Design the sequence.
């Protein structure tokens, strides 16, 4: 499925969607940023509760398809703007990480 | 990509005071490599290795200098700082070993994965470090 398709599903809200046509091929769940960079694959959905500015750089450099903030975590507006500018898709979900992952059809 | 007459060199100063802007050099390198037509997986490897190095320079060394040298078939990343140096390189290379302070950990870094990730994503990695003088890390990614 694409990030656009995911964003249209019930339960997901869009924070930034500059590159919504990207296909999601895998899922990675994690909050330690170096761990994410070491283990997450390209083109995945990265589910996390970490919301500081560094997640934008990590997502961009690790080339994931989108960030999904789980557990109702919100993103600061300046971080959201940075994500939009850097071409990083960010969605949010009120569900915990595992239940969020279960909603993805990949 | 096209044959290059001579290697391209990109040089960056890594700002040691601003943790939130850490990664700017890596993001710029990613853009430059994309413009050169380098394949996405190579770009990903170079970007992550360099970002980890940048973060290390900000956390431990108050910044430093990053050089990226692109030649046919190989991208070399040289990260040089005048920080405290690494006392025990073997220990520093172990996954999970970290000397990062708590405020860094609360940002999601400092998990002791930086140097291991740099090794994981590069074909060659050399650490030259003198305690009290600084550290230079040289990495090569072949493509």
Sequence:
């Amino acid at each position: 499925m694409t990030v656009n398709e995911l964003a249209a599903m019930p339960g997901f809200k869009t924070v930034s969607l500059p590159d919504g046509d990207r296909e999601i091929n895998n899922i990675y769940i994690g909050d330690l940023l170096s761990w994410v960079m070491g283990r997450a694959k390209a083109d995945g959905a990265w589910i996390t509760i970490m919301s500081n500015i560094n997640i934008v750089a990590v997502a961009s450099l690790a080339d994931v398809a989108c960030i999904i903030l789980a557990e109702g975590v919100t993103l600061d507006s300046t971080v959201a703007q940075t994500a939009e500018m850097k071409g990083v898709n960010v969605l949010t979900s009120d569900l915990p990480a595992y239940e969020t992952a279960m909603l993805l059809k990949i | 990509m096209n044959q290059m007459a001579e290697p391209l060199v990109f040089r960056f100063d890594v700002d040691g005071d601003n943790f939130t802007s850490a990664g700017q050099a890596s993001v710029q390198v990613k853009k430059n490599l994309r413009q050169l037509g380098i394949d996405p997986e190579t770009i990903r490897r170079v970007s992550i290795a360099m970002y980890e190095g940048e973060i290390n320079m900000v956390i431990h060394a108050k910044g430093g200098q990053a050089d990226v040298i692109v030649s046919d078939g190989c991208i070399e990343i040289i990260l040089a700082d005048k920080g405290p140096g690494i006392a025990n390189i073997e220990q520093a290379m172990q996954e999970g070993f970290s000397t990062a302070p708590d405020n860094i950990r609360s940002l999601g870094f400092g998990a002791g994965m930086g140097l291991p990730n740099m090794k994981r994503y590069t074909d060659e990695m050399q650490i030259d470090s003198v305690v009290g003088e600084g550290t230079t890390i040289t990495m090569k990614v072949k493509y």
